Amino acid sequence: MIVSILAPFTFGLSFFLFGMYAMRTGFQNLAGKKMEQWMGRFTRTPIHSFWMGLLSTFVLQSSSAVTVLTIGLTNAGIIRFSQTVGIILGTNLGTTVTTELIALKLESFAIPMLLIGVALWLMPRRNIRCTGLVVAGFGLIFLGIDTLKLMAAPLEQSETFRSLFLESSHSIGVGLLTGIIFTGLIHSGSATTVITMGLLSHNILSMETAIAIVLGANIGTCFTAIIASIGTNTASKQVAWCHTLFNVAGALAFLPILPQLSLVSAFLTSNPSMQIAHSQTIFNLVCSLVALPFTSQIASFIQWLIPDKRIPIKRS
């Protein structure tokens, strides 16, 4: 029983994470070198910063990667902390693009995409090879999803597992904590969401708990940024904690209305996986749009919360 659960979990998660890495590497080689220049130039206003955060997250396929890049640019003095709030709001919405694609259930294209990607990788031109990495990465992601599905059946038959989830299936607090911890351990909110989709499709989780796990995954992605900010300047620490506190505040604000969010998602689609994806999109879209007009106030609050401790030099 344990082997039938751990084997597909280990292989499926490995395929998924390696696919994310391959896709991110391909995108980075295609546009990543210009990303720092774009982020330095096109973050003059909160709206520009927001769109840059959204686009960067889609290209790099990781909100954590964009946040770490933002921390690096802030630490180097290329952009100011006040410019980063819009980027952070954009990254949260950018992560939903990957989730929506995953929810489309394109697993049947996994092997063809993997083969096409490998074929493109063997081509001599650099851009074609990088495109091949992106295509192969998508193929590995869908192969990982297909493999992760194999663990759902033994989990469903396990009395221990079922009793554990029966006790916590209606506890959104447990779901939130699960999402935070698991995402913090594997450094991938998308992987946490995929596993949650699989459990939900086999009725092992309730919709409210599944959504709570996904909200927890949003918070869990902040661990990488916090680690990256260690040893950096105050502005970089402000970026990391702004991202963290924003996600925590958003999750806490939505916890009381998870049943309503579940109903809205169910109205949009009857597919459980798509309901999870739509819930995450609605959550991030609402949080970002509500906060976007107040980016300067948010920046001021974070600067008050984490002040620059440098002693100003007195001029004679």
Automatic annotation (TrEMBL):
Keywords from the named record: Cell membrane, Membrane, Transmembrane, Transmembrane helix
Pfam families cross-referenced by the UniProt entry: Na_Pi_cotrans
Keyword set includes Cell membrane: yes
An example Gene Ontology CC term for this record: plasma membrane
Gene Ontology biological-process annotations: sodium-dependent phosphate transport
Membrane topology: Multi-pass membrane protein
Subcellular location(s) per record: Cell membrane
Main location (coarse class): membrane
GO molecular function: sodium:phosphate symporter activity
Segments passing through the bilayer: 6-27, 48-73, 102-123, 130-152, 172-200, 212-232, 244-269, 281-306
Name of the protein in its database record: Phosphate:Na+ symporter
Organism: Brevibacillus centrosporus
